Write the structure tokens for this entry.
Amino acid sequence: MSVLTLARWQFAITTVYHFFFVPLTLGLSIFIAIMETAYVKTGNEKYKKMAKFWGKLFIINFAMGVVTGIVQEFQFGMNWSEYSRFVGDIFGAPLAVEALLAFYMESTFIGVWVFGWNKLSKGVHLAAAWLFAIGSNLSALWILIANSFMQQPVGFVLRNGRAEMTNFFDLLFNGHVWVQFPHVFFSGVTQAAFFVLGISAYHLWKKKDDMEVFKTSFKWATVYGIIGTILVLIVGHTQAQHMVKVQPMKMAAAEALWDSEDPAGLSIFYLGGINPKIPGLLSFLAYNSFSGEVKGINQLQQEYAQKYAHKYGPDANYVPPVALSYWTFRLMVGFGFLMLIMIIGAYLRGKKENWEFTDGKVKWYLYGIFFPLIAISTGWIFTEVARQPWVVFGVMRVEEGVSLATSSFEVFLTLVLYTVVYGALMVADVYLLKKYAVMGTAGIKEEA
Amino acid sequence: MDLNIIWFILIAVLYIGYFFLEGFDYGVGMLVPFISKDDAERRVAINSVGTFWDGNEVWLLTAGGATFAAFPNWYATLFSGFYLALFLMLFGLIIRGVSFEFRSKDENPKWRNFWDWMLALGSFIPALLWGVAFANFIKGVPIDQTMTYVGGFFNLLNPYALVGGLTSLTIFLLHGAVFLTLKTTGSVEEKAYAIANKIWPVATILFILFIILSYFQTDMFTKAGVTPGIVPILAIVTLLLVVYFLKKKRSGWAFIMTALTILLATVSMFLGLFPRVLVSSLNPEWSLTIYNASSSPYTLKVMTIIAAIFVPIVLIYQGWTYYVFRQRIGTKSELEY
């Protein structure tokens, strides 16, 4: 296999793996800060127990996010050195700002939070919780500012054989950032809600532990989750509308729309040439109107072949892997709606039964923990795969960005080793998460 | 002074912060399995850096990010060129990071012992490799006219660089042992004194040897521009003073001395590099410098403003955490890790 193929696999594997841990960090950090706020405001020990119990699970997850995140920052230089040279003038800045603004904040205040329960006043400890939560989410913002440049490059000029920044604020106020960041933010909220919901459901089913802690956690998780899922869907819709404008090929691939349609129908599934559609719905998704042309893959290919012929010749291919884009998009959206139904159901049922759950069915919410993981992973696979062949849309193709100094043996070797190490760590991580989730409030050290 | 020079200095400062701070938690990490077989004493050692290690590591991440932003060619050539070495370092950072969080979350002595050794290994690898890396930086590595590294992994493992690696390894071990004498109490403190006294002569001999070798192996002391001058000599002096303060049981002063040794050694190497950032051993014309490797003036300006605002803020709150968690830790303390 070529260095390029191996480097792409390495990026895919390490990034998807890293992002198993990130959304929970984003959403749960805020959730825990809310719990601790309730504790400081009311003095009720129950909220402190909640913050500590979920905090314990949080830390186990957070550690994995941190160590796999280091790989991400270095990988651009290691496997994509020519990309780094070409866009470093722009792309490096948000990464440096992320480290300076966000990484210091989250890593310092997580230490203060974990070790500071008996050393700090309640108010200062609470401030550490919020600073940590804000730091984590700021890091998501800055990395998405970097990613948005790859999706929709702005604020630059081609000069001295590379892309050079002309306006830093263009990067910040890139339209793509402000549809993508809210989508990622609320997917984090959703992930945290389903995590808390699932593990609370386990204890509400077992009925052995401190029921008050898990009743309240369950109740709050339904509210947190309803907010998260509804907003993630609404923002996702605005993101799709943005996508039609700036990356029409991505939309076409998401729908496997080979030829332009007006009005365009939304594909339900596409199997063996059968492709039933809901008339007009794709036009509606794109323009909030049941008419309007959505461009097809063939037309866009023709358009791009002409537009970029001076650089890549007249025969270059601009079509991303369509089947993968199509199905990952459907999995993301499908699980999004499934979660919406599930979380509203959990709320209504909980309210009716006064959060007591006398029958054993409540345990089924445990499986909900995996739904956001599936939706988020497929969502990211979709958004990155359907941008291909571009690494920076319209500016640089992915094969231009790969490192020249590395051999395929080196990239293969590290790919195998990452996979082995990551696999082994996943076993240890799941073991500990399960252990502390099952142990419940007994796992919290109660100091004076 | 132009912005390229300011960013060269800032990156040097980030490396100094990283080696000074993470240096002692690498040292402590390596010493954990050796300080004691007793779980309580091992936990004291681990918890002495428990609050800090993650924040310390961000100095490296920021140095990496700052290099990318200010000198993209430096970032690209270095990271793709030192590929396997860097992978090894990342492997070390991964396993040591999870070791901190995982080891005390299970009672099984085998589990704990396993993660203690992972912590030691994960601290050992970067402590060794940074010396190897910096020795190669100042000695020069094969870089062609397209700024591409054309050597292999074993090019980096030349004898001079290996002495550099052993030097950084033993200096960080000493720095970690001295940190333990400062931050712990009781049996762990006593053992840390004993270990520090044993490591000191080895570290000192290697350190002096490395400086002598540098005289012959690099152009640090001969090239036009900035020569480190008296700075490496001062580094030796501070290192010699460590043993004096250890004998007097003045752990605070001993720690200041190991910190100064690290600072002065790092300053020497950056002075020796200036204005180059990666030296080509093939042709001096092909070296990467703070000018041919840098970002555009606009990007450097933006980054300078951001750094001027946020670096002081970071220093204030990280300093504050060291103040809050300044008490010594013993086997009777409340331990989180």
About this structure: Chain A has one domain: 3-241+326-442. The beta strands of chain A are 156-159, 162-165, 266-267, 277-278, 390-392, 396-397. Residues 3-241+326-442 of chain A form one domain. The longest strand of chain A covers residues 156-159.
